[in-house]
Amino acid sequence: MELSRRDAVAALGALGAGTATAGCLQGSPDGDGDDGGEEAAVRETLVAAAEVLYPSAVDGIDEFVGTFLAGRLDDGPHAAGVRDAVDALETRAEAWYDGNVAALSAEDRDSLLRETGAGAADPDPDGTPAERIRYYIVNELLLALYSSPTGGELVGIENPQGHAGGLDSYQRGPTA
What we know:
Blueprint: H1 5-14, H2 18-21, H3 36-53, H4 61-72, H5 77-97, H6 106-115, H7 129-146, H8 149-154, H9 167-171
Helix pairs in contact: 1-4, 1-7, 3-4, 3-6, 3-7, 5-6, 5-7
């Protein structure tokens, strides 16, 4: 299944980020702004994490995550939390694997996420590093995927919340 920028905009719309979606299709998801180096590093880390978190049947992760982040990484407290969680993950990658997250193999990235404790941690934006990594990286990426029409299709949610589907979609049962 191919994720697209349109899927990312739909996911942002489902999250109520309507004002942020306007620039997503026009602007570059590559983080070419004033602090493009920092934004590019955050994007690179989150794309690398998504590559191990998302099912193997999904393609187009780079463009999807980049567009989704363009709508989420404003100057608000959520964006600061994402950046802090990325810093925490990168610090552990350097200390434990002698490299940044994107440079690690998929197997090592998966191990890194598990070893941080993010897989078992309760998501908490103000908690321990593991809880923040779970909240701002793991849950953020999974929320993006499964609130998009293509990602929702993977798990049988053909009409995710916020995505118009018409009366028929509400009158029929789930597909098997």
